[in-house]
Design goal:
190 residues; Umud Fragment, subunit A; eight-stranded antiparallel β-sheet; four-stranded antiparallel β-sheet; elongated
Length: 190
């Protein structure tokens, strides 16, 4: 059976279709930019899980419908300079007591299992200390504890500074992958 021939479109129809296509592209572009952010890793603070030069897609939507969980990798505005963004792992949740004792992290008196860290923290970087988190604060730390400026230095991070959860590593292509709770299986508090 022969295929039907395309009708000769008038110039008006063609222009209208081009405008509709451009509008659809603009809406999709705006939607992607409203719901995600892109972040480039800079520095050694999250090694071995992230390296300088890796590109990440960060979901802004995840925390509109839920809260950060222990083990989430978050990007946030540095509280002392909101124009600067950091990437860290959520360690302490609102209302919890976070302690560092003998270079190990404790949450409400229980030692936190941390299989994702690069190396044990040295005594100079992990001095004994404690932080009682308010109802809108999170305690964040880098996976490379000896080379990370994190909540140990600048204190807990208020939820209003958290941009979102890192979900996808997309560059370099050899490192592509989903980041859901990278290196931390038992991350949710019960």
């Amino acid at each position: 059976m022969p295929r039907p021939a395309l009708q000769n479109q008038s110039g008006f129809r063609l222009v209208r279709e081009l405008i509709e296509t451009a509008a659809l592209i603009a809406v999709l572009y705006a939607l992607v930019n409203l719901t995600t952010a892109r972040f480039i890793v800079d520095g050694p603070s999250m090694e071995p899980n992230f390296r300088t030069g890796q590109y990440l897609i960060v979901s802004r939507v995840n925390y509109m419908f839920g809260s950060p969980a222990r083990g989430d990798i978050v990007v946030f505005h540095y509280p002392n300079d909101p124009d600067e963004d950091y990437i860290k792992r959520v360690i302490g949740l609102p209302g919890e007591l976070v302690e560092i004792r003998n270079r190990e992290v404790y949450i409400n008196g229980e030692r936190l299992d941390e299989p994702y860290i690069n190396e044990p923290c040295d005594a100079g970087r992990c001095r004994d200390n404690r932080w009682q988190l308010d109802e809108d604060e999170y305690f964040v730390m880098g996976d490379n504890r000896n080379h990370s400026s994190d909540s140990r230095a600048f204190g807990p991070v208020n939820i209003r500074f958290i941009v979102g959860e890192a979900l996808i590593r997309y560059f370099p292509v050899s490192d592509w992958g989903l980041l859901t709770h990278l290196g931390y299986d038992n991350h949710r508090s019960e």
